[in-house]
Amino acid sequence: IAELEFTQVEKMKKLFLLLLIPILTSCASESKTSTQSEIKINLPQSCLTSKVFEAVKSEVPNAQFIDTKWEPAPNTELADVLNNGGLACSYGDQAAAIGATIRWVRDGKGNFEKWVSSWQSEGYQKVNLSKYGLPPGYFLQKAQSDTQEIPIWNLNFKSGGVWVSIGRTSGTSLRDGENLINAVLTQ
Predict the structure, then answer these.
(1) 183 SS3 class
(2) What are the residues facing 72 on neighbouring strands?
(3) Which of 7, 45, 153, 159 suits 187 as a labelling partner, its CA being 20 to 30 A distant?
(4) Nearest alpha-carbon partner for 169 in 147, 146, 141, 145
(5) C-beta of residue 99 within 8 angstroms of C-beta of residue 81
(6) CB contact at 8 A, 67 and 74
(7) What is the pTM of this model?
């Protein structure tokens, strides 16, 4: 009988340890992620005060702020940005169709995450942005062609609760947008 009781106690100890390990490891991973900080992105006060404007001007000699009267269609990315207090700014040389549009919005409603599956179905690739201190983002590049009049270069990422979308009419790789990414991060 004593041997039977000892075996049951040993089994209970093993069961307790087996149950304790997942609890301890989940706590460890939570504390790890809570100490990791994402880059805080500051939203510009206006399109004209944005450092991004200066970055575009360094790439496009005749760049101007393009004062666009946005009228977003419902259920679009632009609607999610503007209807949540965000800012959308276009800069460039309109006559040459060269430039960039940048959108910023504080994203407390999870709009960024809502668009991920749509981006992936459109051909966006998940990209590593750790070089900028950012979590992964979603990138799409399409060259000009017979069916694609203007080249597409789009990057979406979220950091510090802010969703940023950068769209350019030039560039063939993620590296081509470094100037704009850095401008957004130093806003």
Answers:
(1) helix
(2) none
(3) 153
(4) 141
(5) no
(6) no
(7) 0.77
